[in-house]
Amino acid sequence: MSLSSATLLHAVTQSPDGPPLLHADAGADPVGWADRHRTALRAVVAEHGCILVRGLGLADPAGAETVFRRLTDSLMADREPFAPRRTYAEGVYSATKWPTDQPMCLHHESSYALDFPGLLLFACLDAPTEGGATPVADAEAVLTSLPTTLVDRFEREGWLLTRTYHEEIGASVAEAFGTEDRGIVERYCRAQGIDFAWQSDGSLHTRQHRAAVLRHPVTGRRCWFNQIAFLNEWTMEPEVREYLIDVYGADALPFNTRFGNGDPVDADIVSAINGAYDEHVRRTPWRSGDLLLVDNIRTAHGRDPFEGPREVLAGLGDPVRLTDCAPTGGVRAA
């Protein structure tokens, strides 16, 4: 028996350990089911920040893309990725390539951009044999758990992302900007408020100043919204960090983060941020066919280490403009 959208809202179950969970109708057509329940699903995301739909039977990229398009107003291209990933369609991508034995720390997708997705959609086509969950954490709760002095400083100054695009590691210029044409890359950087400099070895070094705390464009509530910990050198495995510094130098790491005034973010601060995420993290192991919807501003997400195959597609939906979120910290928006 198919649930009405009104009934669906009451069928969501909650657990302190995982995101809100909804079981789809047995044997339902995923596209038709998503179409019928779009309004209700988005209402759950608006209320809880995320929802995991189990038993939807998503099995291939084309079907996942169609469901993503049914549930969003629009999908957006991935801009400035920090690591390569496969493109299935504009707005639909493979999971970011990241070592399977290392966690991907909680963060907010494309928080370094002037336009970023407001809604993330994840489709699990092939669940891993062990681990590999996509943990989530409420960004409002994380904000309140952080030391007040730290939050105050980041609100005053914002945060700085520095990147050096090498061919050998991380995303190359072509992968990050969609072209190797220096003129096009430079125009993009100017339009996006990114300072840039080409290096003598042909690599590109960039700096972008962004807000660390935003107000949700619908609720107006303050959310911790950034990738300060995830893209910081101290989140890397020690041997990886040492190797990269040895090869490229401390000022030419593929990515690193700083306070908005340029001061380094030390290991204790990264530990405090990741500790706040850990206080509020929730996770449910993937099953093949699952769908996860995430409010990208209100809810941080990550990825656990895993074993075995894992194919999870990501959809970047409903773009939001940074200037619509009352950014603080002297952020320059081009």
From TrEMBL:
Q: Which domain of life is it from?
A: Bacteria
Required co-factor(s) are: Fe(2+)
Give all residue intervals belonging to the TauD/TfdA-like domain.
28-313
Q: Which GO terms describe its molecular function?
A: dioxygenase activity
E.C. numbers: 1.14.11.-
State the top-level EC class: oxidoreductase
Coiled-coil features, chain-numbered ranges:
none
Question: Short name of one Pfam family for this protein?
Answer: TauD
Give the matching InterPro entries. Answer: AlphaKG_dependent_hydroxylases, TauD-like_sf, TauD/TfdA-like
Key words of the record:
Antibiotic biosynthesis, Dioxygenase, Iron, Oxidoreductase
This protein is called TauD/TfdA family dioxygenase
